[in-house]
Amino acid sequence: MEMTEIQAQTTFVLWAAFAVAFVFGTVAQRTHFCTMGAISDVVNMGDWTRLRMWGMAAGIAMLGFYGMAALGWIDPMQTIYSGSRVLWLSALLGGALFGFGMVLASGCGSKTLVRIGAGNLKSLVVFVVMGLAAYATLSGVTAVLRDRSVDQVVLHLDSSAALPLWLAGQWGVPGAALGLAGLVGLALVVWALASRDFRASIDNWLAGIGIGATVVALWWVTGVLAFVPEHPETLEAVFLTTDTGVMESLTFTAPMAYALEWLIFFSDASKVLTIGVVSVLGVVLGSLVYALLSRSFHWEGFGSTQDTALHLIGAVCMGVGGVTAMGCTIGQGLSGLSTLSLGSLIAVAGIGLGAVAALRLQIWLLERA
């Protein structure tokens, strides 16, 4: 393969990733898909509908990821979630910090991007602050703190942190990985569809199937379209345009930082577009197009000084927590859970605990007002 072919393939991969993210933004805007909203509905109203959306999306993502692995299309070991090192304390505390922050900021990273597309200026501020906090936690002052504290606590497994792969290795049965992932994924889909109210709404079906399918689609883009067995310059296998150097699916915390970096250093030829950056742009534009077509676009700003302060604090918490946990509600949530990684399970538990704590804080603030 020549370098001209590599360049053409890179461009195609970026456009494919942008298209997947555009669909994600459109579906999320149409269906009000929101992890924070799902947890809030359960805690405040006892309504599980949006959490069933999330569960169905996660189930479809699992079925798709391990289905492609069974077909030999992708190597399930080639993800950041599948290594043998589990930073469990980073995942737990980072997840809790992210979950706490997403409630204060009125939504996680993906919801922030969706709201920007619909005209929410509060979310634009959250995006900038969250991106800066994430950048600092990737390579700045909070990165040093993270590296010298929670990242020092490591659980070493003898094979993969992806539980189906680990169990398959323990049992010596390769097909066990697909079987376990299939059972868990199918159970989540069945749980979502068990509710008559859930089945009655087309938006619930669209959210569960559509969001889950975008996670699977980006795994395919990065694992198949972006994979080059032998790069002409290095003679090594590479995954083109991924930030981590391996397969990726949707995630938004670190990509927000990279998107800001790309915008700030646009004239620097070394700052190239990556799948993460175009995913950020795709979600915003997908939401914008749907909001304009449905006439739901409207400008919205901060309502008070307290509202501003809470959103700023939430944005910082999400930026620091999302990088520390190695992902957000989509990155560790749907993308990470699609691999059934132990680290992702811990991070999601942390996100849930942090979100519930912040919701209790909000109730306390309202009672004092």
Could you list some keywords that capture this structure?
369 residues; mainly alpha; globular
State the order of secondary-structure elements, H for helix, E for strand.
Answer: HHHEHHHHEHHHHEEHHHHH
**Based on CA inertia axes, which overall geometry fits?**
globular
Beta-strand segment tally? 4
Q: Widest sheet: strand order?
A: 1-2
First-to-last CA distance: 66 Å
Structural class, by secondary structure, is mainly alpha
Count of alpha and pi helical runs: 16
How much is the radius of gyration in Å?
20 Å
Helix content: over 70%
Which residue ranges are poorly predicted, with pLDDT under 50 across at least 5 consecutive positions?
Answer: none
Q: Bin the strand percentage.
A: under 5%
Characterize the largest beta sheet: strand count, sense, and whether it forms a barrel: 2 strands, antiparallel
Question: What is the residue-averaged pLDDT?
Answer: 93
Written overview of the protein:
It is globular and about 60 Å long. The protein contains 16 helices and four strands. The longest helix has 29 residues, at 3-31. The chain starts with a helix and ends with a helix. The chain is mainly alpha-helical and 369 residues long. The model has no long low-confidence stretch (mean pLDDT 93). The chain has a two-stranded antiparallel sheet with strand order 1-2. The chain has a two-stranded antiparallel sheet with strand order 3-4. Helix 5 (109-117) crosses helix 13 (275-293).
